[in-house]
Amino acid sequence: MRTLEDEIGTAIEVDLAVMPPHQRRAYAGLDQFRRPVEVRGVQELARGIAESFGAFAIFDVETVLRSTAIAPFVMQTLYTIRLELRRAACDRDRLKAESARKEMARIISAALLARYHFEPLKHARASCHQIGNRPSSSSLAPAEEAIDMSDELGAKPHIEAGPYVHYCEHLGCTMGWLWFRRRPVGAELVLL
Prior knowledge:
The protein contains seven helices and seven strands; from the N terminus they run H-H-H-E-E-H-H-H-E-E-H-E-E-E. The strands form two sheets. Strands 4-5-6-7 form a four-stranded mixed sheet. Strands 2-1-3 form a three-stranded antiparallel sheet, with helices on one face. The protein starts with a helix and ends with a strand. A hairpin with a 2-residue loop joins strand 6 (176-183) and strand 7 (186-191). It is an alpha+beta fold. Helix content is 40%, strand content 18%.
């Protein structure tokens, strides 16, 4: 069975593996002829890695963060990786490059897991509308009612503990919300 640490490490490994060669060389401080140049593209790489965690609820103590909010920390971590390791990830020897990318992913995931707490999101399909009208944030149903309501025939309330995300199926609705069910009696509603 895969652990959460494995999933996070694999997501980072995939991001590093599918990086275009020019972006990989720029991060390693190499030009197209593999000559040393100034390091570039760290911010874009950090943003890409952070966006790959969209399927997770990311906690910084008790604050819930969107995946893009961790990009500055990822960028700081990317700068701490040794230049030799970055350049090894660009090597023509595929085994050497793959092992370097795995080591980089291990470093990044260890730093992220030391700083943040990740929980996979569970998806729910419940309507955030009352009889077809979009409610304001102050007129939202209580969190317990929000868990139980659904437009689907035969839908049952969610009873698993953990974070849920709701994407509204109504066209034009920009309201996405996330709630956490930690106690069997209620839930906390967090607007995004």
